[in-house]
Structures are given as C-alpha cells and as structure tokens.
Amino acid sequence: MNITGTPPDRTLSVVLACDGAVDRLSERLDALARACEGLSAEVFAVHAADTIVTIPGDPPIPTTRLTAPSNLVPVLWGRGIAAARGRVVALTTTQFRVRDGWARALLAGLDISGVAGVGGRMALAADADLLDRAVFLIRYSEHMASGDAPAPREIAGDNAAYLRDVVMGVCPDVAAGFWEVDVHRLMRAAGARLGQAPGAVAEFAPALSLPQMLTNRFVHGSHFGAYRVRALRWPRWRAVAVTPLVPVVLLARIIGRMRRARQPLSSAVVLLPAIVALLVAWAAGEACGALSRDSCANHG
Fold first, then answer.
1. Pairing state of beta strands 160-163 and 63-68?
2. Residues whose CB is less than 8 angstroms from the CB of residue 116 and which lie 6 or more positions away in sequence, other chains included
C-alpha cells in the first residue's frame, strides 16, 4: 500500500541517499540509468536539508530531489521509501557506483516465493585507495562470507531491494527512518524472508577524506550509543564503560570475518592505522550518544 494513496505506477523506485561524494551525483545517476535501462524506474535523490545537492538539468533517469532533517543514511532512505511509487524499492548511496545489470538482478532475486528483501554484492572500486579499503573492511566485512547463503539473516541496506508493500506493512512510520536491522526483524516476524542477489554489484567508491570518514563513523556510532540506552535499556554507565573495548572487539570481528572469507590477513596490516582511527571514532561516538538527549527519545 502506498502511503500517499497513489497506486504504484512503476516497477522500481531507487532511493539514492546522498551521504557523500555528492559531487559525483551525475556519474552515479548515469550508472543507475544504465542498470535500469528498459525498466519502468525512478530515482529519489535524498539529502539533508542543510546540504546543497544539484540534480543535472537533464538526468538520464527520472529523478526527484527530496530533503530530510538528518544526514543519517537510514533517515534519508526512509524519506525516499515513503515517497516511492514502485512495487520494489532499491536502496543505495552516493558512496556506491552500481554496475550494469544491477536492477534486473535485484528484481530477479525478489521473484523467489516468500522473499521480500534481497541484498546485492559489494565490491571495491578498482581505483580504491587505502582509506577506502579500510572503511570497506569496517563496514562490510560482515557480508564477505555470506554471498552464497540463500537465506541470510542480514543484508546491507547500502545495496538492497525490498517489496515496498511488505516494508510499509511492518514499518508504517518508515518516513522517520529505515533502520534495516530493525525492519528485518519485523519482516521475519511477519513470515517474510531475506535472500541474495549476487549479480547486483555495487562498487564502493566514496571519494571522501579521512576527516569526513571519521565524522561519518562518529555520527553513526553516536546513534548506536543512543539506541543502546533508549531501545535496549542499557544503563548509561554501562554503555559508556564498554566503549574502550569497542575498537578491540570490532577489530577482532573483522579479522575473524576475513579468515572465514579466506581473505589474506596480510592485506589488512597496512590498513591497520586507518582502521583503528575509524574504530576509535565510532567508539567515541557511542559514548557521546549514550550520554545525549537522543538516548531518551523515542526510537525512530
């Protein structure tokens, strides 16, 4: 059911969260146009209200610009999902460049009975630098060894597609934010399954500086710290007390995932300084989030 009351008139709505590399928006739209060629598709480019984003004068795919009250990616996605008109809504960000065939692979994955959400495959861009590689390991190592699992427990929203009716059914307030772990839990409770679409490849090519990446990790860590106190009911002292251990625990998880995915650990050694810096930024964000007013607000 479309929350605007308008029947879906497209097969696919793509929500493009403009959370970085916005200067490459034209390139990202070109890639989306190639991936969606021949389909009835639309794009919603969503950005924070205080961010300047310019849509090309003649975008290669029908594109609508939307604003949201926050630059958190789940909030940007939620705003786009609420406005979407397609039967299927696909999610990505300007930090990714989709490859040809991306859209059709996602749609094919959703043709399987009972599957209401599918995750594509992440790849590093050929020109990725050391910082990009470090961020890729931190954010997506969880999915390294899950590409062949027919029914994964989790998929990354950064490269995923969902049946919009199912999402709206379990999360009618999605306009406030699409937090995929929470939505996946509600989908499973409703009897829906997640699947894989390995042919839907998106290349991680963020083109962000180290200060921007550190800020990004701090902001997302802050949200998680507030979530621990607000939704998981952790005492503030506990949420703050565990933060010195966070970089150690997360680094151990990354190493374990690399081993399970049979990735050479030597490739991470040169990335270690950047990885540690980014993990410390996340941990600092967790502590600040646990102490913030947001930790007392209703979870959205």
1. unpaired
2. 110, 162, 163, 166, 167, 187, 192, 193, 194
d(CA 14, CA 94): 12
Residue carrying the six token digits 């290669």: 60
pLDDT in tens, 233-268: 899 999 999 999 999 999 999 888 888 878 778 777
Q: Per-residue pLDDT for 3 more than 80? A: no
Q: What are the backbone angles phi and psi of residue 168, rounded to the nearest 5°?
A: -65, -30
Q: Which residues pair with 30 in a beta bridge?
A: none
Measure CA 37 to chain center: 23
Structure tokens at 170: 């379990």
CA 214, CA 210: separation in Å to the nearest integer? 6
Neighbour count for residue 134 (Cβ, 10 Å): 25
Q: Residue 86 in contact with residue 8, Cβ under 8 Å?
A: yes
User: Among 28-37, 40-49, 143-152, 187-196, which is the least confidently predicted range?
Assistant: 143-152
Q: How many CA atoms lie within 13 A of 183 on its CB side?
A: 31
Closest C-alpha to 286, from 233, 235, 252, 242: 242
Q: How far is it, in rounded angstroms, from Cα 5 to Cα 181? A: 27
pLDDT in tens, 179-200: 998 899 999 999 999 999 999 9
CB 71, CB 48: distance < 8 Å: yes
Domain locations along the chain? 10-204, 210-296
Query: In the block, which residue shows the tokens 């490269």?
Result: 159
Secondary structure E strands in the chain: 10-17, 41-48, 63-68, 86-93, 96-98, 115-124, 160-163, 193-204
CATH topology classification for 10-204: Spore Coat Polysaccharide Biosynthesis Protein SpsA; Chain A (3.90.550)
